[in-house]
Design goal:
By secondary structure, the chain is an alpha/beta fold. It contains twelve helices and ten strands. Strands 1, 2, 3, 4, 5, 6, 7, 8, 9 and 10 form a ten-stranded mixed beta sheet that branches. It binds aspartic acid.
Length: 326
Amino acid sequence: MTAISKRALLGTGLAALATPALAQSNYPSRPITMVVPFAAGGPTDTVARLVAEAMGRELGQSVVVENVGGAGGTLGAARVAQARPDGYTLLLHHIGMATIPTLYRRLPYDAVNGFETIGLITAVPMTLVAKKNFPANTLQEAIALIRRERENLNYANAGIGAASHLCGLLLMSQVDAAMTTVPFRGTGPAMQELLAGRVDLMCDQTTNTTEQIRAGEIKVFAVTTPERVPALPNVPTAAEAGLPGLEVTIWHGLYAPKGTPRPVIDRVGQALRAALKDPKVVQRFADLGTTPVPEAQATPEFHRQFWQAEIARWRPLIQAAGQYAD
Ligand code: ASP
């Protein structure tokens, strides 16, 4: 194809019909959609919006976040798995990518092989939080109340496979008492219900709870990491508060549909790594108790290996619990 005809083709907006090589060298020539498989206002959404804005600056094209919530993050993941593998549709998802392949036995997409990995993004603690007037002030008091009240208490989550679901499973199995589970399309809307006092408890990423905890709008009983979180120095770890089994760290990663050309993956990955070093992103993440991964982990190879290891780690735990979504 001559330079003139290439230009003519691009000029008519028919770039999508160009040869793959041309489309790649020109990438990105239009806005990119970053699908978040949970509702707006939640922690995955917050991470995505921060990273998308910085990536857009780096790529010279806007990266537009689209929330496709529901079914524990599987609706949004399906949307990306089924999209054209051209780099214009990406997925920002969390640890659910490692539990969904086991939790869901019937999915309209390949949850293990349907994606290219681009890079890990963050490591995030969870916090066990409650509505402001919840009648317990420590983790031990909360455990006693959960054991006494059981189904009379409402536990909010973002559907089966969500981080809030996993944390709730761990909590309920550790204290050996089941609460009534109330699923939302994301923990953004769930937080609104917690703030309004219409649900009792939730376990959610610090990205979504730090500011409400600091403002005294909700109660917090523990963080789920082995170490305390610098953004919440007075909050004990679950182990310190007497429940060592409540340990889970959430991670986020960026994906593209299977078959997305490697040069495109590399361009997006480069922008991701730059975004994770952007001072504005770094500062905001720190304020929200959210840690960007080291640069070497924001790569396709590390991400794929880590993700597959996480699938293998969660599979026997989920199978032993015998709890499936379908
Ligand atoms: N934090 C939520 C969860 O996985 C999802 C969300 O970001 O809304 O429970």
